[in-house]
């Protein structure tokens, strides 16, 4: 069984689309562990705020099979690929970590750079799995979060009925 971490975000009908993602992932993978939900300003473009969380689960699927399931869920939310990468979206699900796998063959890129780059990924994943060791740096996610410049991209913890 692999331990899988997904980043999930939305800035178009975000509560509805996060619920859709959680429902669909639960149907596919069973028990999900959810981080708190955070609101953050859009990054890289002007748009509505995002709601983000990290989801952890155990499964036997390969990383490629998980990426294929992610695309099916994106389609259910009405996400259109081919549009600008830096644009509003109903749903954005990214494979962040898959055990200690290090791979860089599209569409499987783990660990995803976003884990250490963005507060809306690092804070929730560090809260969900503080002792998980990043497969490239050899340091825990909590260590990375403690050293992160949180002021560079502020977050607001919010209560969402998921």
List keywords for this structure.
alpha+beta; six-stranded antiparallel β-sheet; Alpha-Beta Plaits; 8 strands; 162 residues; two-stranded antiparallel sheet
Task: Explain the overall architecture.
The structure is a single chain. The protein has 162 residues and is α+β, with helices and mostly antiparallel strands. It has one domain: Alpha-Beta Plaits (2-Layer Sandwich). Helix content is 31%, strand content 25%. It has 5 helices and 8 strands, in the order βαβββαβββαααβ. The protein has helices at 14-29, 63-76, 114-117, 119-128, 141-147, and strands at residues 2-10, 33-34, 37-40, 50-59, 92-98, 103-105, 108-110, 156-158. Strands 1, 2, 3, 4, 5 and 8 form a 6-stranded antiparallel beta sheet that branches. The two termini are 26 Å apart. The model has no long low-confidence stretch (mean pLDDT 92).
| CATH fold topology | Alpha-Beta Plaits
* Large-scale geometry: globular
Beta-strand content bin: 25-35%
Instruction: Output the helix-strand order.
Output: EHEEEHEEEHHHE
- CATH class designation: Alpha Beta
Helix-strand makeup class: alpha+beta
- What's the CATH superfamily, by name? 7,8-Dihydro-6-hydroxymethylpterin-pyrophosphokinase HPPK
| Poorly predicted runs | none
**Major sheet attributes:** 6 strands, antiparallel
DSSP helix fraction: 25-40%
The value of Rg in angstroms is 15 Å
Number of strands: 8
